[in-house]
Amino acid sequence: MTGAQAGGPADFESLFHKAPCGYLVTDDGGSITAVNETFAHWSGYAPTELLGTRLQSLMPVGDQMLYSTHCIPQLGIAGAISEIAVEIIAADGRRRAALLSASRSPGSPQHAASVRVIIFSAHERRMYEKELVSALREAEESEARRAQAETELQHLAFHDALTGLPNRAGLKAKLKTVLADRPPAGGTLAALFIDLDHFKAVNDSLGHAAGDELLKSVAQRLAPAAGESRTVARLSGDEFLVLDVFGSAEEATALAARILDVLSAPILLEGLEIVTSASIGVAVSGNEPENLDDLVRRADIAMFRAKALGRNRWEIHQHAESDPTVDRLRALGELRRGISDGDLRVHYQPRVDLRTGHASGVEALVRWQHPTRGLLPPSEFITMAEESGLVRPLGAWVLDETLRQAASWRREGRRAAELDVAVNLSARQLNDPGLVTMVEDALRLARIDPAVLLLEITETALMADPGAALESLTALKKLGVGLAVDDFGTGYSSLTYLKKFPIDELKIDRSFIGGLDSDHGDAAIVGSCIELAHAVGLRAVAEGVETSGQLRTLKEMGCDLAQGFHFSRPLPAPRLKEWLDAHPGGGKDFQ
Ligand code: C2E
Ligand code: CA
Ligand code: CA
Predict the structure, then answer these.
(1) Centre of ligand 3 from the C-alpha of residue 572, in Å
(2) What is the count of structural domains for the chain?
(3) Which of 82, 137, 340, 589 is the 20 to 30 A CA-CA neighbour of 366?
């Protein structure tokens, strides 16, 4: 058997392997020492591949942090069970949603943790998280009730509690048999994505109980409209799906029209007659084989179009349609994978002290080594990361990597050992309640003096909500890190706030530095930024210095630090060391 306790009774072995949940056992270091067949099968890895692998390495970066901060500390406490919802990266690269329930194995000192993995798909995660967690707890309470609870769990995992319809997992299970019985020769696989119109309004005005009633009566109408043999599933909230083999695309759109028709009859709710409608997206698979998730996603896109075109209607998604939403989703998926596959890089740009001529620090600038598009600058992906929330794991990675690098420079000694490091924070990170803990953990992990780290926040991000920013900055400052206002001059700071913020440095935006050689207006702005900085006790830093003329003016103006292509472009760590060796400094280097 694959690493389960040797010598255990045969029926224990088969219980372990055939359990409806994945089971893993890890040692103190988090390496997998035993795994059951259910987990191996679900994740697509051979048991031999899993044994010896660190459980965390199967998770995306963000979830790894969740696991180390929430589960690992609990494992030290006898009897404690820690549960978290995470994603597991399966062998085919796809993310699978899972609920981990980790506890210390009783009476087996060589095993630190027994981890149970409840397996379900992302859509159901939202719906079932609560039910599963409490069902799990109950199951843990007594061995006798465990078997019963697991059967219930399995039912829960395949059905929607409210309407009794299959959920996504149930649908997939059912579909497997449909496809086996009736392979779509001549027929075609189609998905109808049905989303009720204005459901939220019913929920908000009449209450959740009325909302539930409405969903139930919609479910009762959908099944007969679709026909006895067709599978109707509830995906989540007010989303339903029909996924089946149809004779033709027309047959699928005819069903969409029929569904709109049956839904249009009024429903009696709390003594009121409610008229409901839906927007339906239809997608039909073409000649090429297509995976079910893609088919459903295309139906979802068509549903959005039906909404945009006025609701209470159906729309069909053509297979070859190039859709900006799809492109965006694909790009987002690639970035998510890029982050967890280790495709991000940090380049470092020197910051030169204008009094000594020495590089006193570096700014960390992220890049993405894209598998097909090459090395991408942040302008290609930072906005997308911000909008999707991916900037949290991305930012955490940049910080970890930069501090790791700074610590390694310190161990090596020589010039690089004196460098401090500046890391950019995005507006979204600034509003993240977990930010301070994230920075604190990163500093502790790298065992580095907090004073080595400078965090750069743009003026625009600070001024979006100065009150909240003041709170975050104050908490960060308490850690002992330095703080800089980036792109200064592009936002609208008030002097009042600048004085209140616990900051150390103003970085004058490079658009003003560019005009220093020629534009008198820009020279006046840069001059007064430097004066302003000094008046409130801050360092003034010029970024985007490209010429010796600009450098000379900045020195005359009393600017403290400068950064730009004139000194160096951002470089990978090994090249930065070469640069340092070639520029021993001493004030004469950059005139
Ligand atoms: P930024 O913080 O203002 O970074 C300085 C940018 O100016 C960098 O662009 C740098 O390569 C560029 N630069 C430096 N010297 C010169 C020069 O002499 N002339 C010109 N024309 N440009 C110069 P990059 O690396 O493309 O980064 C762009 C922006 O992306 C950064 O602007 C920052 O806002 C953001 N960014 C970069 N790394 C990160 C990160 O790790 N996290 C977050 N949240 N944002 C980042
Ligand atoms: Ca910056
Ligand atoms: Ca900047």
Answers:
(1) 19
(2) 3
(3) 589
Pair (295, 377) in one structural domain: no
Q: Which pLDDT band holds residue 422 (cuts at 50, 70, 90)?
A: very high
- The proportion of the chain whose per-residue pLDDT surpasses 70, expressed as a percent, equals 82
Rg of the Cα trace of the chain?
29
Three-state secondary structure call for residue 569: coil
Last residue of a domain, one of 321, 338, 362: 321
Task: State the pairing for strand pair 95-103/561-563.
Answer: unpaired
Which atom of ligand 1 lies at the shortest distance from residue 391's CA? Answer: 44
Rounded distance between C-alpha atoms, residue 480 and residue 499, angstroms: 19
Residue in 424, 460, 487 to alter for ligand 1 test, most ligand atoms within 8 A of Cβ? 424
Model's pTM, two decimal places?
0.55
Which range of residues forms the domain containing residue 289? Answer: 168-321
Nearest-angstrom CA–CA distance, 352 and 362: 9
What CATH number did the domain enclosing 172 receive?
3.30.70.270
What is the rounded average pLDDT of the residues 32-56? 87
- The CB-based long-range contact list for 402-409 (8 Å cut-off, 24+ gap) reads 402/346, 402/364, 403/442, 403/443, 403/445, 403/446, 403/448, 403/452, 403/453, 404/446, 405/346, 405/348, 405/573, 406/446, 406/448, 406/452, 406/453, 407/446, 407/447, 407/448
The pairs formed by 513-522 with CB atoms below 8 angstroms and a separation of 24 or more are 513/542, 513/543, 513/544, 513/545, 513/546, 513/550, 513/554, 513/564, 514/544, 514/546, 516/549, 516/550, 516/553, 516/554, 517/547, 517/549, 517/550, 517/553
For residue 150, the model assigns a pLDDT of: 56
pLDDT at 591: 61
Take atom 38 of ligand 1 and give the residue whose Cα is closest.
Answer: 365
Query: Average per-residue pLDDT in the chain?
Result: 82
Question: Letter for the amino acid at 565?
Answer: F
Q: Tell whether 88 and 174 lie within a shared domain.
A: no
